[in-house]
Amino acid sequence: MYNYLLLLCLLLITTASLAQHDTATTTPEPIPLLRQGSFTAGGTVVTSPGTFDPVADGAFNPASQSTAGQTLHGDHATVFYQVPAEARPLPLVFWHGYGQSMRTWQTTPDGREGFQTLFLRQGFPVYLLDQPRRGLSGRSTQPTTIAAATDDQLWFGIFRLGEGTEFYPDVQFSRDPAALDRFYRQITPDTGPLNIDVNVAAVSAVLDTIGPAVLVTHSHSGGQGWLAALENDNIRGIAAYEPGSNFVFPEGEVPDSIDYVGGTLRARGVPLDTFLRLTEIPIVIYYGDYIPDAPVANPGQEQWRAAVAMARRWTETVNAHGGDATLVRLPDLGLRGNTHFPMSDLNNREVAQLLRDWLSEKGLD
């Protein structure tokens, strides 16, 4: 009887369309799991000089405790994973953006299924990570000061929900005040100085642990994802949601920087033979709505105008060298109102279906 029910659940899971499943009006089907768990990967160990004295230093007193001869394990990535029964061969590894954690990919702020569950239902093993010095990977080997700044409205604009406290017309983010409250509360501070090399090394160690996988990035991790792919052959494809920095070009082909209200977006160069690694895997980039094509006075929109312009140059360069990179603007496909977080917007199932179709098209499923 149990095996019959298990097979029935698997049939429902594998045949259901991401876009058609509506947990707001139906009871979600259970997801049979083969296994789940968590682990850390990468990181370093710092050792203080001297000899540890368990008698003199055994009592915990931060004001007077000696660190002589003691170690600190930090700067690793932390991963939570779930592998469904009858799993597809290639896992999806989800990497969050700036000021965020694996929370980005979990339940949406208004309580619906996020990408973690949507793709698990489609049979993909799902790995969610917190990069070094963020979230569950908070043990840093370098100190920092965490400011308690009142900056919610700044992020409201940068994340393109609207301006100040006013939502954009027809925005796909829930207007429920409780959803906005939870959205603000998923912002996560850095517990050490932001170090891209440290992040890339730790995520590369994650891929060494998992093996071949598809990397799914968001915002700040987009550029770090390119760098990780340059180092690790286990990355078999990349889907990047709204990358905003660290676009890499071949040396001698680095485009001019792009100025925008509040800053300048610069690309970086790598040797051509290194860059060509990015031409060996399929890559897709997605951007949402409220991104102008010409300069505007709104700084929350401006930096994404620059990012889209740089992404366009980047995909053209990858493809000119024989690669397979695609730039998708969701409004061009009829998906309007998406914020910087399309994975948790009200139409996240339609957004997920686009990725699901791309994975199938590229043989990554």
From TrEMBL:
Domain of life the protein comes from: Bacteria
Lineage: Bacteria, Pseudomonadati, Bacteroidota, Saprospiria, Saprospirales
UniProt name for this protein: AB hydrolase-1 domain-containing protein
CDD domains: Esterase_713_like-3 (cd12810)
Statement: the UniProt record of this protein carries the keyword Signal: yes
InterPro entries in the cross-refs: AB_hydrolase_1, AB_hydrolase_fold, Carboxylesterase_BioH
All residue ranges annotated as the AB hydrolase-1 domain in the record: 92-316
UniProtKB keywords: Signal
Organism: Neolewinella maritima
Pfam families hit by this protein: Abhydrolase_6 (PF12697)
First and last residue of the signal peptide: 1-19
Signal in keyword set: yes
